[in-house]
Amino acid sequence: MNSKWLLDASNPKYRTIRAIQKIANHELIFETEAIALTAYVPQRANFCSFCFQESSALSKCASCSLFYYCGPECQKKDWLAYHKIECEGLKKAANIEYSNELILSLRLYLVYKENAGFQDSILKMKSHEDIYSEAEMAEIKEMSKKISEILNEDPKEIPTIFSIICKAKINFFTIEKPSYVMNMSVGTGFYQGEANYFNHSCLPNALKIYSNRKLKIFASEEILPEQEIFICYDDIMGKPFNWRQAYLKKHYKMTCLCRLCSKEAKNDKEIYPNIGLKCGKCPEKGEIINNKCKSCGFIYKYADLATLHHDLESTFEKTLKNMKKFEESLIFLEEIKKARLEVHSFLIEMIVSSIIHQYFNLCFETHPKECYNLLKFYVRNYQKWFEIKIPSFGFKINELSKLALKMKKGKKARRYCEEAWQHLSLHFSEDNCKEMKELANRRVLIQGLLDTGSEIRKNENKGILKID
To answer: What is the pLDDT of residue 275?
Structure first.
């Protein structure tokens, strides 16, 4: 698999994955399996703790009641790999908060103890022990002690556990489920091989796809020999420059100098367009255009705008969460649009995504027209929000095809089916993706309905089948 790329470790401070042959757009670059993974706490009952298959019919461990499995086979594999050692300690330490980070670090330590090869590779990985704040260091030390207590380890092992946590904090992958109506982070994983040596870009030339315990990396554009291969570390594409920089600094202790950040840093006016921020320096609460208040003329530092931006996003999220009806959220969205929030603002994308995620399945039957228009708005404006098409874009078009079929818009349903197939077949197959299997059946169904409708119209029996 690595015949077209290599790991360049000549500079120990900045190791890179580089192409040595031309890699075509959408070509599979890298594939590997998880060393350890875990779902976020709210998602643990939805994902098998070993194979990470999503299911609504999982069985939990009868002893500790913390982990869930899709069947006896996965439970046995998880028992042999990790749970045999951790189960009793997890059950006894009832006062400990079992965070995602704690569970992932605990399991990595168990692999470290049993696997000499992994010991060598993880010790070579970067950590940022030297730049963590005192509060962060104290938090990591406390977590190290908790893991030691859970596993009944000799206190002498705490420094090793501490080191593993530090390396896990910047080398883990955030697992996203692109088949959801919106991209949604559901857990974290630590992967075999050179996965941890791919560096970050806010406009990457490669995309990550998660399938159960597997991680696949595909090219998102043509990559030429000697070019570095970049991935995006988290779900931050489409967010403003300073928002991304603050996020990466907090979670990965890095300043991003990628092609997108370098371009935006040179042109301050592109960093914060008109996104509805209000000035807190004047009684009029004037509108902030780029970094200047339209009323009082106060010039904001871009770091301060990042804070205002984050506060506005949090306000919107709380407002949407407190709404009880789909109709209320749609009215809220229209009000936000009228308030001159630009369509390309990531806040609009966030609002639309939140509404879709919160109400789509609930309102598919009761409000198909409204769901259809909302999703169509998302697909139509996608290119204004993101510079590359991430995999979830194809799944959103797939949902549009379902709604079009429900509303008996046969020709549009067929068009959306073909468009979704065009996007999704680049990365997924009917064998490993249930949505692809459903889409394949829907394509056949819709074509059959359209053909039948044509025959009926030929015989002048109009009204029997209104599929378009």
So the answer is: 59
